[in-house]
Amino acid sequence: MNKQSAQFYPMVPLLRAAEISSQEGKAAAIGAFNVNFYTQAEGILEGLRRGNAPGIIQASRGANKFQGGPDKIAGMVKHAIENTHHQLPVALHLDHGDDEKAHECVDNGYSSVMIDASKLDLEENIRATKTIVEYAHPKGVSVEGEYGKLAGVEEDVIHEKTTYADPYLVPYFFHETGTDALAIAYGTSHGPNKGKGLENLAIHVVDESYRGMKAYGQNNDHFLVGHGSSTVPQDIVAEINQYGGGVKNAAGIPMNKIQEVIASGIRKVNIDTDLRLGITATFRKYFVDHSHIEDNSPEVLQPIKKVLDENPEVIDPRDYLKVIDVELLRNDPAGSVLEEVMILVKERIAAHVEMLVRKFGCAGLGNKVERVSLEEMAKIYQ
Ligand code: G3H
Ligand code: 13P
Ligand code: ZN
After folding, report:
1. CATH code of 11's domain
2. Nearest Cα to 34, choosing from 59, 9, 13, 63?
3. Does the beta carbon of 190 sit less than 6 angstroms from any atom of ligand 1?
């Protein structure tokens, strides 16, 4: 019998389900979770399933490079959906893309792409974003832009301070570009050290942006995105440090603040760092619990352990997983020497994703998403 190939949803119907829920009195945002390897995708899917939540799986340019290109990521995530018989709506999204990568992802199986032209001035940003919209929409692919600058590191760009989005220009940005979603800078930052910036959180930027969108009747088709939203759980950080790590000054966005921005109009919440921390804690604990590994499985696990031992501060799994064959990481590890640790990784991610989707209000929305294919979405855009 022919197995049906998994289809990614455009991002729009997922975000719209969150918007409708919010209008009906239950504020909601869709979780968008970064992926770098196969088990991470399975863990995210399992968490979504436990919460009956639609979800966005996203890959950065770095993740695409790590796995050898957008086609590899798309194949890997499809494979995870098929292997786990996942039935809930999932979008595959490019995170912080540039012009070239956005085109490539539209052509290689993604259902949504981000063009982050936030380092350009507003009019150039609008032009760059519109170019991608004009390329993606005829294929039904959704687009996210970014306006304002987050403090800290975004792919290859480092900003000292937040440059907030001007809420009065947000409806203008949507109108001029036709972008489906827009990441607005309101004081969050990427990574595990958000502490210093937390006093800069400007939730009124979200409030006023959303109010403007409503005034122009944009809010059923256009949606606000919050980047840098990891909660950085202190128990996970403590576990990393207990098992040989050295993560310092770790602080995330408090959950009540995330819920406040969702109540103010954010419909997509990006989470990467929390998953990195969970994966790293799992590997570190595993190596302490299985100290025989050095003798038994030198070819695969030992080099990973060596990187972790020599670099207490690492939290990006790619830094220690890159020492093994990436193909092992693109496939279901069942039956391989990685299987045992990957089962733990999957469970760690699933538990955290489930907790987050419940807090984000999108648990239970799995059956509330309109089933729209990319072909149908392309016709809607015409
Ligand atoms: O932009 C931030 C995301 O956390 C992606 O990170 O570019 O290191 O994969 P990455
Ligand atoms: P965190 O570093 O807070 O997880 O942010 C993720 C993100 O914004 C991905 O684009
Ligand atoms: Zn981001």
Report:
1. 3.20.20.70
2. 59
3. yes
